[in-house]
Write a structure and sequence with these properties.
It is globular, with a radius of gyration of 19 Å. The termini are far apart. Helix 3 runs parallel beside helix 6 and helix 5 crosses helix 6. The protein has 183 residues and is mostly helical.
Length: 183
Amino acid sequence: MSVREAARRSGVSPGAPFRHFPTRNALMTAVAEEAQRLFRAELAEAIADTPTTDPLARFRALGLAYLRWAIQNPAHFEVISSGKYFTHDQSAEVSADNGELVGMTGRLLAEAAGQGQLRDADLRAIEIAGRAMVYGFARMNIDGHFPRWGIAEAEAGAMAEAILAVFIDGIAKREAAGGPIPQ
């Protein structure tokens, strides 16, 4: 993405953005900060709508909100996640916000483990695996891989829910009878 392209998409002259942003980096920092704010709002809404007494359900809601937002906002997701346009270290706001999200994920998993909801105690591995799964699925969308895997654009949300269910089923502790723990 260039400043010229951003200006064209915004319907302004190529030099207009530089009245507000002295460099391309400053412009992309502002875009990343706005994208992160929108991303965080989506995640906060999903968590708010989930019972506070069920940390595994909240972890699932967080993952689903991540995927939904990334699918619906691929350009913003690209800016805050790829490293091509923006580095988190360039914005204290984005870095702090991202740190809070990582911390929330860790706390939710710790709570789930404390309640006996997880089959494995390696919370760091679960956290990284969950992040890799949602990030990978979001990248598949951005990189145009869905058609090759037979996923129509209209099916992306349902597939996101399905892969998240597979992941949650894989980390959730099972009852002695073999059924899932009620959520």
